[in-house]
Amino acid sequence: MSRVTRLKHVQRELDSDDFSLPTEKQQICRIVSSKGNNLHEVESSIESEENYLVSMPPKFRKNVWIKRGDFVLVEPIEEGDKVKAEICRILTPEHQKEFEKAFVWPKKFTKKRDHEEIEDDKTSDSDSDNDDDLPQNPNRRQNYRAETSSSEESDQED
Question: What's 1-60 look like in SS3?
């Protein structure tokens, strides 16, 4: 199969409205970091598990890119000590909504997402004309003007 044909099939698979729920073996995870060579460190939805490495299958390589914070559906693999699972599906926000409706979405990931949305609502409701909340630009020289009275200036000149 040529590269263009493979890309077309992978894109069609990602764009399809396949909202099938995860099986018993599959698990929803969040990408923590990319370790290179098509390996990614993920945060498990199970509280007791540590972060572990997952591999990206060949059909996704050089066709699909994932970044930190994205959610994936992984399936455990038996072989290998360091790499414990393989990515089955890359989850979109539509998948998240459908999984939340079906009560399959992990609560560990829901809390953080709800917390971020609440913070976004608070910042959008605040007055946008107020520049006091903005951090100062470290790339600009700070000009400090000290206001002194005329009597202090005459004392300093003597």
Answer: CCHHHHHHHHHHHHHCCCCCCCCCCCEEEEEEEEEECCEEEEEECCCCCCCEEEECCCCC
User: How far apart (Å, rounded) are the C-alpha atoms in residues 14 and 17?
Assistant: 8
How many other CB atoms are found less than 10 A from the CB of residue 61?
A: 12
Per DSSP, the three-state class of 149 is coil
pLDDT digits (tens, 9 = 90+) for 93-102: 888 899 999 9
Q: What is the DSSP string of 54-120?
A: EE--TTTTTT----TT-EEEEEE-SS-SSEEEEEEEEEPHHHHHHHHHTT-S-HHHHHHHHHHHHHH
The pTM for the full model equals 0.63
128-131, Cβ contacts within 8 angstroms, sequence gap of 24 or more: none
- In the predicted model, what is the mean pLDDT of residues 62-79? 89
Question: Do the beta carbons of residue 16 and residue 29 sit within 8 Å?
Answer: no
What separation, in Å, do the N-terminal and C-terminal C-alpha atoms of the chain show? Answer: 89
